[in-house]
Each structure stands twice: as structure tokens, then as C-alpha cells.
UniProtKB/TrEMBL annotation:
<feature type="signal peptide">
    <location>
        <begin position="1"/>
        <end position="23"/>
    </location>
</feature>
<keyword id="KW-0732">Signal</keyword>
<protein>
    <submittedName>
        <fullName>Uncharacterized protein</fullName>
    </submittedName>
</protein>
């Protein structure tokens, strides 16, 4: 009996040492708030309490705008998008203005990597061209760092893919509604 207990303990220790023991991944958070299912009211409160300066918080828009410069070095803009019907988090984006700084994307990737480890996928060359690094999380959540080219401005996205699709569907429906309304208003002109 003692032999089985010690064998189980040794096996468990070996699994931990080799990284084979299962540990549930931590949820994707921002300012300590799990983003999956986070409400607009809850995130607004958390952002303000951590020093984020609101530029626009208005429920009639899908996106709230903030000045993150006092919270995250190098960030010039922060946007948070919500599903209008439920006021649930869909996505957010930090903007890091690049001025011919090809290494900026590498710095932002290193920042995220210091908290979440290496990205799940990475494409591109930091020195030249487009670069994308993505960290995948459970429940359709992800973080993506992206730089286009030749503009070296870098973007850091937090995305709930499921809720982001719902928000985009709402946005597309509103655009169609506005186009139809405009066509009806101008139908006498043609």
C-alpha cells in the first residue's frame, strides 16, 4: 500500500516537473476584469478606477474611446467595443503610433509575451513588412498584435470572437439601414 502511495506521489511530481499536469488556462483579463461576458458598466468602472481617461463614453455608440497615455507607455488611443443589444464586451484596441520605428511591433509583442508567454502564432519580419502575433485563449478569446506596412503604427487587440461577430452584424445592419433611408430620402431626385 505504501509503495502505491509513494508511486502516485512520485508520478505526480514527475508530471508537474515535466509540465504534464493539467492546469486550466487563466481567463483573458484587462485591469483585473475577465473580459468574457464583461459588461459595459463593469469595464467602464474598472477603466476609470485604473486611471483611463474617457474621451467618449456613450451608449449610443458601439465603441467607447479613451486616452491611455497615463496607463500604458506609448499607447495613444484605446477603444472598447460592445454588443449594443447586450452591452457585453466584444473587442478593444490599443494604438501605438509608429514614426518609422520598425522595432515598435517587437516591443509590443515582448510586452504581451512577458505576461502571457510566447504567441500561439506569429507571422512577418519585425524589420520589414506586416507582422502579426496572436495569443489564443479558451472561449473564443484572443490577443493580437498587428503592424501593417509601410506605416509602423502598431495595434494591440483583445477580441472575443463570438461577441465581435455579433457586434459586426449589428454594425453592418445599421449601415444597410442608413443606406436604405438615404435612398428613400433621395428617391425623388432620380
Amino acid at each position: 500500500m505504501k509503495r502505491r502511495i509513494w508511486s502516485a506521489i512520485a508520478c505526480g511530481a514527475l508530471m508537474l516537473a515535466c509540465g504534464l499536469a493539467y492546469a486550466a488556462p487563466a481567463p483573458l483579463t484587462l485591469f483585473g476584469i475577465p473580459l468574457k461576458g464583461a459588461t459595459r458598466a463593469h469595464l467602464r468602472e474598472a477603466l476609470k478606477s485604473h486611471g483611463m481617461i474617457a474621451k467618449r463614453e456613450d451608449d449610443s455608440y458601439w465603441v467607447d474611446l479613451y486616452d491611455p497615455s497615463s496607463v500604458l507607455d506609448g499607447a495613444s488611443e484605446f477603444q472598447v467595443g460592445y454588443v449594443a443589444a447586450t452591452h457585453v464586451f466584444a473587442d478593444c484596441k490599443y494604438t501605438f503610433q509608429g514614426s518609422m520605428d520598425t522595432q515598435l511591433v517587437g516591443k509590443v509583442i515582448a510586452l504581451v509575451q512577458s505576461k502571457y508567454g510566447p504567441p500561439s502564432t506569429r507571422t512577418g519580419d519585425i524589420n520589414l513588412g506586416e507582422v502579426t502575433a496572436t495569443w489564443n485563449f479558451p472561449s473564443s478569446m484572443s490577443i493580437t498584435v498587428r503592424r501593417g506596412w509601410p506605416d509602423t503604427t502598431t495595434y494591440l487587440y483583445y477580441i472575443d470572437a463570438a461577441e465581435d461577430r455579433v457586434m459586426q452584424t449589428e454594425v453592418d445592419a445599421e449601415k444597410r439601414r442608413q443606406l436604405q433611408q438615404k435612398a428613400r430620402a433621395q428617391n425623388q431626385a432620380y
